[in-house]
Specification:
The protein is mostly helical. About 65% of the residues lie in helices and about 0% in strands.
Length: about 80
């Protein structure tokens, strides 16, 4: 066999192998990015819920009473 033919065959096989590895890696990278985004959205939702939840009764001030009671017998 000619030297140029052997080098061409080995180069072709190497290119095909590298493309297959790149495709496999790219698929896993896309999956990892999707999972990362879902985790980020979940953490953001939990943080929003945790920080925006209503305060408990012990944290709030008591309601102020009106200065004058409403009269029930209006004339």
């Amino acid at each position: 066999m000619d030297y140029l033919l052997i080098v061409s065959l080995v180069g072709g096989v190497a290119i095909v192998f590298l493309l297959a590895v790149a495709k496999f890696t790219l698929r896993w990278l896309v999956r990892l990015v999707i999972v990362g985004l879902l985790l980020l959205v979940a953490l953001g939702g939990v943080a929003w819920w945790w920080l925006e939840r209503p305060a408990t009764q012990s944290d709030t001030k008591p309601r102020s009473t009106p200065a004058r009671r409403a009269s029930s017998d209006r004339r």
